[in-house]
Amino acid sequence: MAITEEDIAAVRAATDIVALITEQVALRRAGQRWTGLCPFHVEKTPSFSVNAQEGRYYCFGCHASGDQITWVRETLHLDFTEAVRLLADRSGIELHEDPAASRQRHERQRLLDAMEQAVAWYQERLLSDAQARPARDYLRSRGIDGHWARQFRLGWAPDDWDALARELNLDARTLAGTGLGFVNQRGRRQDAMRARIIFPILDPSGRPIALGGRILPDQVGHDGRPLAKYKNSSETPIYSKRRTLYGLSWAKDEVIRSGEIVVCEGYTDVIAFFQAGVTRAVATCGTALGEEHFTTMRNFARRIVLAYDADQAGQSAAAAVYQWERRHEVDVAVARLPAGQDPAEVARHDPSALVAAIEGAIPFLQFRLDRVTGPAVGGTPEVRARAGEQAVEVLAEHPSALVRDQYAMRVADRLGLDLDVVRQQLRLRASGAPPAPATQRPAPSARVRGAPPRPGEAALRLCVHEPRARSRFHAIFFLPAAQRTAFEELAAQPTVSAAIDALTRRGETEAADLLAAAVVSEPPVAPSDEAIDAVVAQLVRVAATAALRRLERRLRAGEIPPARAMSVIPDVKARLELLETDRGPAAVDSLRAWLVEESAG
Ligand SMILES: [Zn+2]
Questions:
Q1: What's the pTM value of the predicted model, to 2 decimals?
Q2: Whether residue 76 sits in one domain with residue 30
Q3: 120-135 pLDDT tens trace
Q4: N or C terminus of the chain: which is more exposed, having fewer CB within 10 Å?
């Protein structure tokens, strides 16, 4: 980590979170806090709240939460360091980076600048060079005219050994660092791309980081041998194949807006989808879809539609796809493209068919099952039985027993097989598979905006907003484990944000969520001493009543001597009654002492 904790704290302190958020979302003042429509989920009534003093936001609808840095990361899709740098620049804070990190950053910027120049130069060749005429003609024949060539920054690499290196005067280090070229065996600089249409590959913020190059049809090498149709940049310090998605910078806005990303096979497919009006399409760059692509995509969308050729999609490594679906909490669907045609052809002749294929995308498992069962529907008993066996094989790969069973019903129904037999086969087949892990997502909370908070939540709110009230509470007052954990962390940390961060780091998501919600909520009462007393009393009543019941249960079960219980129970009951009277505060103190003692014993 190149940025110091002090700098991070300074950046947070210098950034007015309300001003920052209102650059993108309209906020209205509501009492102590600010509210607006949540940018992270679609809604009509505002459930997004901001606490200006604490520098935190929280959404009561989708539970998105964070501080200034999180906001920049989530909305601009930057990593932590980039987000801190952006905020530091915004407030004019000089970061104390270690010299190595700062050198690395400058080198990176130098390579990005060279890539940008190269892409501009290649584009200029395509648009105006006489030699590029065949390339222009070819693109036009594929429906890509000047407008689309400009939109996707397409270029032309001249039929020359070193035109780019020479024209832009790129040295050996820059050629190697960008993958734009290399130094050949005779010690001469040489371009990586020659006589190819250039498809620049951009990072999510729109900076060129690599190139894809396509030959013209029937083109052969100078030695007469066939050439690879596509050639892609090698991996460099600025380009990782496994993570990069072609087209993401152009598709990003629509992907975020729709919550859906369409993955197709190649650069020209992406362009075809854009031409058909599906502007949320991306492609992998000459490599199979892998987990790191999923990591990139899940930052932008929760639904992934594979728009591959039907055979390709069916053969995707199914087990891996299910695993990624779970691990990254995304849904994978498959578009049913017209058979035997690539998307570019469909886009030219029938754009609406392309749109319909995406809209009609079906879950990955259903797609695979349909391929197995479809041809057997209405077939002989033997054909249907064989398809049933194949379907069970496909089903067994899915990690969720609940999902497997629902589709088992569909399979039985579709093939006219006995459901119990399908289930039995599935159990036999799936018993070898490891049990599905429990989902990572915290249980959906019953807290709804506007509903009165439960006593523990009201108390947490008070503790968040009135630090002086914290000493009046005790962890044992909080019965739900998450509330108790949240209170303990709050009491242990200097600020609410520090407590939320610590809980998040430990994976205590439910407890972190409770504090994140509390910090953007109105304090439950005007925090006078009497009001604090009332919240404490309410919580103590609930906790003491629960402890009393536990004691009575243990007495009935013979776990404690009756003599002891008999002396305690009436005493606690009497104090609980006192809570309602003007001797309440004294009763609170004695009940508190009793609860602490009980929890210790
Ligand atoms: Zn939301």
A1: 0.64
A2: yes
A3: 999 999 999 999 999 9
A4: C
